[in-house]
Amino acid sequence: MSPAHRVIDPGNLECARCHRPMRLATREPTPARGKVLTVVRRWPDGMICSGCTAAAQETFGTCPGCHTHRMLPGRNPTGQPCCTDCAGMPAMVCARCGAEGWMELRGVCGRCVLIDRLTIALDDGTGRIRPELTALADRLAAMPRPRTGILWLNKPHVKPVLHAIATGQVPLTHDGLTTLQPVACVSYVRKLLVAAGTLPDYDHHLDRFERWLPGWLASIANTDQRAILTRYATWHLLRHLRNAAARSPLDPYRQQTARHQARVAATFLTWLDSHQHTLETCTQALLDSRLASTNYSDNVATRTFLTWAIRARVAPRLTLPPPPRGKTFTISQAQRLQVLRRLLSDDTMPTADRVIGTLILLYAQSLQRILALRTSDITTTRDDVTLTLPGGNVPVPAPFDALLRAHLAERAHQLPPAANPDSDWLFPGRLAGLAIQPNGVRQRLQNLGIPNAPGRCRALRELVLQAPPALIAPLLGFNTANAEKIAAEAGNTWQHYAPGDHTRLAGNR
Ligand SMILES: [Zn+2]
Ligand SMILES: [Zn+2]
Ligand SMILES: [Zn+2]
After folding, report:
1. Mind giving me the DSSP string for 183-207?
2. Which of 325, 346, 426, 469 is 20 to 30 Å from 393 at the Cα level?
3. How far is the CA of 84 from the centre of ligand 3 (A)?
4. What are the DSSP calls for 390-426, one per residue?
């Protein structure tokens, strides 16, 4: 482990493990070679870059040389990870706690440093962690990779939030947390506090709506309109959300729909005002002309508002004309195959997006259902990948199985910093305990021409019945080694799966 700057640069250095170009720390950048890393370690197998050094000190397992379970930062002659003793490397043992691991400071491991930093960040003013926050501290300190926790604590907005909670600047309650900024960081800490058992469970999406509503109402300039909208939002929209949340956790669509309903109600009142009318004086002719000129989703939201307003007697007894027919979505088999081909071949797309799109198109599942999958819904053996859907187990045929395996491998390395270590979402999101949120994914899938809106899966389901997953690879021209055997076996399984309850499978929102 001699410091890199004492070594004479032999030129054209590359990392012995990842083979990316490197330079010694003292040299000027060499732009002709693209992104150039810095040598940080000289280990028996060569010069190692910072990324590989970190990964090596976070690799644990049974050493193939001495069969002990410990850190495996070295490489044996056949290139397998092995322990420091078997690799002939200096020991990497924390002088403080005696454990092997990532050394954050000279001789002190990342976990010890993380615990020090947490003790400062959660200090209640007495030099110790506020007693109610020890469960949070323990949870953070136990994360698999302490380095990510240290990086998280170094972010400028994290310390003020933790300090405010630790010193009692705000009450240690959901309401108290609501007064803190920035929202993303606070949501994250809140989820951790819930996961640690410090705060009672709460509904993330209900909370978002409750926090959004007061500010939005305050932004309505017309006081009469604001009064009506306050009643509508509080007694209709919020009450429905709360009732739904009491039954089961809200999904993000519900919260967004409620916001949309509130905004459309406000737009309708403004429109009435521009015609010198109020809700009280609204005529049937005005209502009919408004409903005839709005798009489908605004029409539905306007109706919801008027149904409430008539019942609450803030609008006269108007008649609501029959609702418009929803947009129908069509996708042809050729389009389905074309998009699947692109998902298979375009490795510039994030793997998670490719897997999500593939599962939607192969099995006609809604985006929501795909995002609700857990890692336990995937079974991998050396030869097969099986997916558990509500209708039963379905095989994932080649070449799609490789994509799913790649996602599982990436997922294991990409859990976000300080994420709930128990999270087993197949597509874990940035917030502890939550899966990826659908907004961004939905837009990217739509750009690809993938139907994922609720209720639009029926068209896709027809196509799946015509060409089940196992038949797709041959249709795309993929010659898998035993395609026929796979197709025969998978076809059987699919036969059992396909005649099930399609309406239930096709996204029952
Ligand atoms: Zn490397
Ligand atoms: Zn060993
Ligand atoms: Zn230590």
Report:
1. HHHHHHHHHHHHHTTSS----HHHH
2. 346
3. 17
4. TTEEEE--TTHHHHHHHHHHHHHH-PPTT--TT--BS
Using CB atoms within 10 A of its CB, is residue 264 exposed (0-12), middle (13-18) or buried (19+)?
A: buried
Between 157 and 481, the more confident residue is 157
| 81 Cα–ligand 1 center, Å | 14
Q: What is the pLDDT of residues 106-159, one digit of tens each?
A: 889 999 999 999 999 999 999 999 999 999 999 899 888 898 899 999 999 999
Q: For residues 322 and 312, which has the higher predicted lDDT (pLDDT)?
A: 312
5 Cα: distance to centroid of ligand 3 (angstroms) = 28
Ligand 2 centre distance from Cα of residue 40 (Å): 23
Q: How many residues does the chain have?
A: 509
Cα of 68 vs centre of ligand 2, distance in Å, is 6
**What's the 434 CA to ligand 3 centre distance in angstroms?**
30
From the CA of 58, how far away is ligand 3's center (Å)?
14
Kindly compute the dihedral angle of the four CA atoms of residues 12, 104, 407, 33, in this order, to the nearest 10 degrees: -20
Residue 85 has pLDDT above 90, yes or no: yes
Calculate the CA 381 to chain-centre distance.
26
Helices and strands (H and E) in the chain: how many: 23, 13
Q: Give yes or no for a contact between 444 and 451, defined as CB atoms under 8 angstroms apart.
A: no
Nearest to residue 364, comparing CAs of 397, 331, 338, 325? 331
Report which bound ligand comes closest to the CA of 108. Answer: 3
Least confident range of 40-54, 150-164, 283-297, 467-481: 467-481
Rounded to the nearest angstrom, the distance between the alpha carbon of 41 and the centre of ligand 1 is 10
User: Are 454 and 507 within 8 A, CB to CB?
Assistant: yes
Q: Report the distance separating Cα 449 and Cα 437, nearest Å.
A: 19
H-helix or E-strand containing 81?
strand 81-82
Cα 109 to ligand 3 centroid, rounded to whole Å = 4
Strand pairing report for 37-43 and 21-23:
parallel
Asked if 370 and 396 touch (Cβ cutoff 8 Å), the reply is: no
pTM over the 0.90 mark: no
Q: How far apart are CA 509 and CA 489, in angstroms?
A: 32
pLDDT digits (tens, 9 = 90+) for 323-332: 766 555 567 7
Query: How many A from CA of 98 to the centre of ligand 3?
Result: 6
pLDDT at residue 256 in the model: 83
Distance 3 CA to ligand 3 centre (A): 23
